[in-house]
C-alpha cells in the first residue's frame, strides 16, 4: 500500500512538471544553439575559399560533407538517449562538445599561424592551407559534428514530451510546439545570417566566430537552468535490440503455421508498459511474416519469455512501424540535396552579382546573408500556416492540426521542384547579362545584375522548410514507436545527412563527367564560363521524379494503430 501511495505521489509530481513553463528554457537553448551553428556554417564557404584558399568545388564538398556527418551522428546520440542516459543529459553533454568545437574554430580563425598567408583571390601566388592547418579545421568540424549528434535528435523530442499525450488539450499544443520551435529557430537564423555574417565579412573572422561561441555557452546555461521543471522520461533500453529480437524470433519460427486469429498472438502489458507509457500498438495485417515472433509455442515460457524467441504484439508492431516509415523517410533525401545548394552555389552566385541595396547605396549585402530571405520567408510562412491555414483547413478536414503529415509534406515537395527550376532560370539570366557585359573571363568583376534576382529561389526554400521539413519531423515523431522518438528524430537528421552526401556525389560526378578537353566543366571557379544552370536543371528533374515517388508512397501508407492506455477514469480508445 505504501509503495502504491509513493507511486501515485511520484506520478502527481511528474504531472506538475513540463508544459508551457518549460518552453522559455528550451527555446532559449535552441535560439542560442542555432545562432552558434548557423553563425559559422552559413558563411563557411567564404572562410574556406577566401581564408584557406580552397578551390570552389573542394570547399563546397567540405561543407556538404560536414553537414552530412553532422546529420549522421545523431544516430549515436539517439541511441544513448533512448537506451541509457536520457535526453536531458545527452543534450547537455552534446552542448559541451559544441562549445569545444566552436572554441577550436574561433582560435584557428583568430591566430594568423593557423591560416595560409593572405593573397589576392585566385592570384598566382595564392597558397592553399597546409595539411596541418586543415587538420585543425577538420578537428573542430568533427567535434561540432559529435555535438550535433547528441543535440539534434533529442531537443525536439525533449520539447514535445513536455506535453502529456493523454491530455487532449496538451496533445494539441504538441503540434503547435513543432511550428513555434521552427519559428524560434528561424528568428535565430535570421540574426545569424545578418549580424553575425556582417561581423565575419567586415570586422573579422575572430569576432565573427567568437560571438557564436559565446552564444553556445549561453545556450548550455539556459538549458540547464530549467532542469527542475522538465518532465523527463526514463530511458527504456536499446530500441535497436528489441527490433533485432523480433527479427530473430520470427526467423526461428519461420516454419510454424500462422495463427488463424491475431487475438491468439502474445501480449503482455506489464512487459511493455515501460516502452509504451501513453499507449500500446495493436495488431496490423501488413508485414505479417513478423507476426510469427508473437506466436506462443510449447517451448516458450509465457510468464517470463525469452525475447529472442517470443515477442509481444506491441514489439512486433514497433518493427512494422519503422519499416512502414522507410519509404516516406527516403523521399526527404532529395529535398535536402536541393536546399544544400543555398550554402554553396547560391552563395557563389551572389558573390558575382551587384549586392548594393540600391543604385546609390554604398552598403553591400554579404553573400552569406542572402539566406536571410530563406529564414524570413520561413518565419512568415510559419505564422501564416499556424494562424491562418490551419484554422481554414480544419473546417474541411476536421483535424485539429489542419493537414495530415503526408499532405503537408507533399505540398513542400512540389514547392522544392519550383525552387530549383527558378534557380536554373535565374542563373541562365545571370550568365546572359555577364556575356553582354563582356565579363565571361572576368570572374572578379561584378556582373551588372542585382542580387535580389536570387530572392525568389531563397524564399521558396524557406517555404519548403515549413511544409516538408516540419511535416517530415512531425511525421517521424508521431509515427515512431514511443520509446524510439529520439531515434526517429535522428532518422530525420539522417535524411539530411544523406541529402548532403547526395549533393557531394552529384557535384563530384558533374565535375568529372562534364569536363571538356580544355579543362572546362559545368562547375568551374569562374561561374561565368560554367553551366551551373544545367546542374540546377538536373536537380529539378530529380525533384520531379521524387515527387511522383512520394505520391505513390503516401497513397499506400498506413498510419500506426495506437490504443491509448486507460486512465482510472477513462475508457480505452484507439487512434
UniProtKB/TrEMBL annotation:
In terms of SUPFAM superfamilies, this protein maps to:
MFS general substrate transporter
The terms under GO molecular function for this entry are: transmembrane transporter activity
Q: Which InterPro entries match?
A: MFS_trans_sf (IPR036259), POT_fam (IPR000109), PTR2_symporter_CS (IPR018456)
TM spans (from-to) = 96-114, 135-160, 180-199, 206-230, 328-347, 368-385, 405-426, 491-515, 535-557
Q: Does the keyword Membrane apply?
A: yes
Localisation per UniProt entry = Membrane
* Assigned GO CC terms: membrane
Can you cite a GO biological process for this protein?
Answer: oligopeptide transport
Q: How does it sit in the membrane?
A: Multi-pass membrane protein
- What keywords sit in the KW lines? Membrane, Transmembrane, Transmembrane helix
The family note in this entry says: Belongs to the major facilitator superfamily. Proton-dependent oligopeptide transporter (POT/PTR) (TC 2.A.17) family.
State the name under which the record lists this protein: Uncharacterized protein
Amino acid at each position: 500500500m505504501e509503495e502504491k501511495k509513493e507511486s501515485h505521489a511520484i506520478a502527481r509530481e511528474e504531472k506538475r512538471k513540463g508544459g508551457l513553463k518549460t518552453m522559455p528554457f528550451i527555446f532559449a537553448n535552441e535560439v542560442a544553439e542555432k545562432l552558434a551553428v548557423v553563425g559559422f556554417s552559413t558563411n563557411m564557404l567564404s572562410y574556406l575559399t577566401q581564408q584557406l584558399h580552397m578551390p570552389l568545388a573542394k570547399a563546397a564538398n567540405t561543407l556538404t560533407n560536414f553537414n552530412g556527418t553532422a546529420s549522421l551522428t545523431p544516430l549515436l546520440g539517439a541511441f544513448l538517449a533512448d537506451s541509457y542516459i536520457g535526453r536531458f543529459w545527452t543534450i547537455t553533454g552534446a552542448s559541451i562538445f559544441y562549445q569545444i568545437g566552436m572554441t577550436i574554430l574561433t582560435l584557428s580563425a583568430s591566430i594568423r599561424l593557423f591560416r595560409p598567408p593572405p593573397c589576392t583571390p585566385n592570384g598566382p601566388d595564392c597558397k592553399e592551407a597546409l595539411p596541418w592547418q586543415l587538420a585543425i579545421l577538420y578537428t573542430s568540424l568533427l567535434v561540432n559534428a559529435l555535438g550535433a549528434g547528441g543535440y539534434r535528435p533529442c531537443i525536439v523530442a525533449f520539447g514535445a514530451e513536455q506535453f502529456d499525450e493523454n491530455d487532449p488539450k496538451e496533445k494539441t499544443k504538441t503540434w503547435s510546439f513543432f511550428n513555434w520551435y521552427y519559428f524560434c529557430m528561424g528568428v535565430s537564423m535570421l540574426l545569424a545570417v545578418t549580424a553575425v555574417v556582417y561581423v565575419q565579412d567586415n570586422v573579422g573572422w575572430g569576432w565573427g566566430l567568437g560571438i557564436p561561441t559565446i552564444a553556445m555557452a549561453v545556450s548550455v546555461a539556459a538549458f540547464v537552468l530549467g532542469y527542475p521543471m522538465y518532465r523527463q522520461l526514463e530511458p527504456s533500453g536499446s530500441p535497436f535490440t528489441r527490433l533485432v529480437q523480433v527479427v530473430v524470433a520470427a526467423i526461428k519460427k519461420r516454419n510454424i503455421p500462422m495463427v488463424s486469429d491475431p487475438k491468439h498472438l502474445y501480449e503482455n502489458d506489464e512487459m511493455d508498459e515501460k516502452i509504451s507509457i501513453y499507449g500500446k500498438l495493436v495488431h496490423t495485417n501488413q508485414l505479417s511474416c513478423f507476426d510469427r515472433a508473437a506466436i506462443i509455442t510449447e517451448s516458450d515460457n509465457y510468464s517470463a519469455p525469452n525475447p529472442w524467441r517470443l515477442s509481444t504484439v506491441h514489439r512486433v508492431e514497433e518493427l512494422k512501424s519503422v519499416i512502414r516509415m522507410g519509404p516516406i523517410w527516403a523521399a526527404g533525401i532529395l529535398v535536402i540535396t536541393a536546399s544544400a545548394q543555398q550554402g554553396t552555389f547560391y552563395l557563389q552566385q551572389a558573390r558575382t552579382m551587384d549586392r548594393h541595396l540600391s543604385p546609390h547605396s554604398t552598403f553591400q549585402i554579404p553573400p552569406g546573408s542572402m539566406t536571410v530571405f530563406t529564414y524570413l520567408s520561413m518565419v512568415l510562412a510559419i505564422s501564416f500556416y499556424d494562424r491562418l491555414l490551419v484554422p481554414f483547413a480544419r473546417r474541411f478536414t476536421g483535424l485539429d492540426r489542419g493537414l495530415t503529415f503526408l499532405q503537408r509534406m507533399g505540398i513542400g515537395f512540389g514547392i522544392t521542384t519550383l525552387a530549383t527550376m527558378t534557380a536554373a532560370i535565374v542563373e541562365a539570366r545571370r550568365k546572359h547579362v555577364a556575356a553582354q557585359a563582356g565579363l565571361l573571363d572576368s570572374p572578379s568583376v561584378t556582373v551588372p545584375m542585382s542580387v535580389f534576382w536570387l530572392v525568389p529561389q531563397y524564399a521558396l526554400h524557406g517555404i519548403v522548410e515549413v511544409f516538408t521539413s516540419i511535416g517530415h519531423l512531425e511525421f517521424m515523431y508521431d509515427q515512431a514507436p514511443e520509446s524510439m522518438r529520439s531515434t526517429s528524430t535522428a532518422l530525420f537528421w539522417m535524411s539530411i545527412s544523406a541529402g548532403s552526401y547526395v549533393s557531394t556525389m552529384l557535384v563530384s560526378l558533374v565535375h568529372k563527367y562534364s569536363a571538356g578537353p580544355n579543362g572546362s566543366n559545368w562547375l568551374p571557379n569562374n561561374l561565368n564560363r560554367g553551366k551551373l544552370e544545367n546542374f540546377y536543371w538536373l536537380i529539378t528533374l530529380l525533384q520531379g521524379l521524387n515527387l511522383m515517388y512520394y505520391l505513390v508512397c503516401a497513397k499506400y501508407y498506413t498510419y500506426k494503430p495506437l490504443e491509448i492506455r486507460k486512465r482510472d477514469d477513462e475508457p480505452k480508445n484507439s487512434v
